[in-house]
Structures are given as C-alpha cells and as structure tokens.
Amino acid sequence: MNFRKLEAKECRLIIMRHGTNGEYRDSRPKDTICDESYEQAFKFGFKLRAGGIKLDEVVMSPRGRAVKAAFACAEGNSKVGESLPSFRTDERMRDGSNDKPEIVAIVKAYAEKKGIGSEQACVECPEPEVRGYILKRAEEHAALWRVLARWNTGQTILACGHGGLIEPGILLLKNPETPSLPQAGQPIQYLEMGGAVELILTSAGELVEENYLR
Q1: Does a structural domain hold residue 119?
Q2: In this structure, is residue 143 part of a structural domain?
Q3: pLDDT category of residue 189 using cuts at 50, 70 and 90
Q4: Residue among 116, 140, 144, 121 at smallest CA distance from 131
Q5: So which domain of life are we looking at (predicted)?
Q6: Can you give the residue range of the structural domain that contains 24?
Q7: Of 121, 116, 145, 115, which Cα lies nearest the Cα of 133?
Q8: Count of structural domains within the chain
C-alpha cells in the first residue's frame, strides 16, 4: 500500500467495515467477528504500518463486531512494546439493529428479494421510512468524520463501522449541499466485509481524496 504525505490542515481517515460475524454452535450470529475476520483485520493493520501509516486514534461503533475488528487492526498496526492508540466508541457509527429493528427487517427482506447484499439494500430500498432513516444515519456518519478531521489534522484515524451506512456517509461528504441517497441502479462503490477506504479531509471538512484499499 502506498500513501501520500498529508498536506497542512489535512487528516487521514481509514474507514473500515467489520468482517464476517462469528456464530454460536446453533448457527445464531454472535455480535463479534469470526477468527478469519479477526486475522484479516490484524493483517490489514500490519499492512498499514508497512505502508508508513501509524494509527493515532481509533473510533468505532459500540457493537461488539466493530469493536473487535478495530482492536485487531490496531494490534496489527502496533509494534511489540509500543502502546496502542487511544480508543473510543461513538453512537453515530452504530448499526440499526437495536434502535430500528423494523427498518433492518425491511432491508433484509428487500436484499433477499433482489439477491443483493444488505449494504446495497440499505442504499437502494425504495421504502420512504428506510430512505429517511439511512439518510439521517449517513448525516451522522459524515458529521462525525468532519469533526474528527477538524480536531486531528496531521493524524490518521481509524473509524470502524457497518456496511450500508458507511457508503451513504461518504456520498454526503462528496455532496454536502444536496444530501440525498442514490436511486437503484446508480453506480456506487460498496465495501466488502472487512473492506476499508482511505478518506483525506481538510480541517474544514472537505473531502479531497478517496482511495479504496481492499
């Protein structure tokens, strides 16, 4: 991985989607990631360090799967005997399973009907209540990232969250004056499970660069 040096008043955000959930023996999903996804996140952190990137702070969804993925990445990014970066959770990067389970149910049904991933269904589902909720959550994501950029110029921040909310958050960074979700069929790049994107923002919150890393 190759990363450019930050200019004055720029911040580097590494936005990562957590990996595949682990499962209980009866196949019920755990709120954590499986061992393979943990290893994937650890190796990604190591690759960041090999590319000259040291994480200065980690911000994550309070959900267990995002927390574990973030810690794995930070561990891989740190050298032996070196302190880990500071960690904190932020509700603005949470998923919708607790506060809006009815929205999650609609999205899952739409994904199954269309044969698409849940992250794509979050963005494309035409139901007004879904689009309103996703847009609101995307605005929360974008607002958080702008705050991080404002207070962390010259630093690299890892933000770990959930697919279907990260992508529309990035869209709102690109179009802050006209916040909206794309219609079905419009091209948009989605993060795979465990995927990440580098965003470089100015301290004023302007997105100047976007690079998908894996």
Answers
A1: no
A2: yes
A3: confident
A4: 121
A5: Bacteria
A6: 10-98+134-212
A7: 121
A8: 1
* 197 strand-pairing partners: 15, 212
Q: What is the distance between the alpha carbons of residues 198 and 84, in angstroms, rounded to a whole number? A: 20
Across 87-102, b (16+ Cβ under 10 Å) vs e yields eebbebbbbbeeebee
Residue carrying structure tokens 């994904």: 111
Domain presence at residue 105? no
Instruction: Work out the pLDDT band at 25, boundaries 50, 70, 90.
Output: very low
CATH number at residue 194: 3.40.50.1240
Locate 26 and state its tokens.
Answer: 């009866």
- Residue 86 has which token pair? 């500071």
Domain assignment present for residue 112? The answer is no
Q: 3-state class of 108 per DSSP?
A: helix
Per residue in 111-137, pLDDT tens? 999 999 888 898 889 999 999 999 999
Q: What is the pLDDT of residue 164?
A: 87
**What's the CA gap between 185 and 203, in Å, rounded?**
33
